[in-house]
Amino acid sequence: MEPLIHFAIPFAILTMLGIRPKVAIPVSLLALVPDMDVFFGIHKWFLHSIIILIPLGIGLSIVFLLRRTGLRNYAPLGLLAMLSHPVLDVFWNYTPILWPVYGESIWINLGINLQAGSSLGIGHNVGVLTQPTSFEAFTTLDAPLVTGAGLIIFVLLVILPVLLMEIRGRRSWL
Ligand SMILES: [Zn+2]
């Protein structure tokens, strides 16, 4: 799944919970941490495992809690934002979400098609697929960074709500 969607989904949830964009933006940026593995030449490496991310996130949370920054109260939400990444990826493609406890990469394939036309049809190909996890360095990155659908989701879940909050905030000053 592309970075814009990984950012947009926790951002939308946080702002729906009433958290200001000023806080929701840095917290949601933590959802991009698992894709830092591309800088090491491997996509979907150990940072896509919740077995690795949970202790790493708890460690980072403790560092935030010990430092007296304004964001320390949001450290647990940052952990959840980080965990949202492999959870979303597992519905997108093979993800080593339970590595190294479970050596297979998992894909929860929700291939559901609802078609309307001369007759109404529902097709489904729902299943949990697995394949052995192998961390291989890529020579060229073939993952999309931005797609048209991702851009539309980003505008609807991030840009539009922030603009509406801004407009509503200005009205309250009148
Ligand atoms: Zn990913």
From TrEMBL:
Residue ranges of the TM segments: 7-33, 45-66, 73-92, 145-164
Protein origin, superkingdom: Archaea
Keyword entries, A-Z: Membrane, Transmembrane, Transmembrane helix
Listed InterPro entries: YdjM-like (IPR007404)
One Pfam family cited in the UniProt record for this chain: YdjM
Keyword Transmembrane among UniProt keywords: yes
Protein name: Metal-dependent hydrolase
